[in-house]
Amino acid sequence: MPALIELPERLYAHDFAELARGELDGRVRVRWLALAHLQEGRSPREVGMMLKVHEKTVLKWLRRFRAGGVEGMAEQPGGGAKRRLKAEQEPQLKALLAQAQAKRSGGRLRGEEIRALLAEHFGVEYSLSGVYVVLHRAGLSWISARSKHPQRNPQAQERFKKTSLSR
C-alpha cells in the first residue's frame, strides 16, 4: 500500500477542477487536475497513472503548490537556451549590417558573411540557421530584392525597359 502524504490545509480552499476548466495553458491544466485528484484522496501514484506522468512529477507539483500557492503553479520563464546575442545588441547589429551592405558595390550580404560579422563584432558563434533566427528576431529579412551588378549600365537598362514595354 502506498505511503500516505500529508496535504496542506490550503489545498482544500481551491476548486482545482474549476481552475483546470478555465486554464488555457495545457501544461498548467494538467497540474490543476493532479491537485484536484489529490484533493479527492487519491495517491500520487494513482494520479500519475491517470495523467500519464511519473508520481515524482505529481509530488513536485504538490511542492510547488506548497511553496507558491496558486500563483506558483504557473509556467516559469527561463526555460530553454539563452540568447547569445542580447536583445539590447540588436540595434547595433542592424546598424552594422546596414553599414556593411552600404560598403558593397553590388550584391547582398550572405549568411556566412553575417556569421563572420557576429563573431568579429559581438564575439558570438552561430550556425547558419541560427543567423537567420537572429535576423528574424531583430526584425530583419535575409531575403532581399534582386541585387544590382556593380558594372551595370543604367542607361542600357532604361532603353531595354522602354523597348520591352512598347512591344
UniProtKB/TrEMBL annotation:
Winged helix-turn helix domain residues are 106-164
Enumerate the Pfam families for this protein. HTH_23, HTH_33
Q: What is this protein called?
A: IS630 family transposase
Q: Residues annotated as region Disordered?
A: 146-167
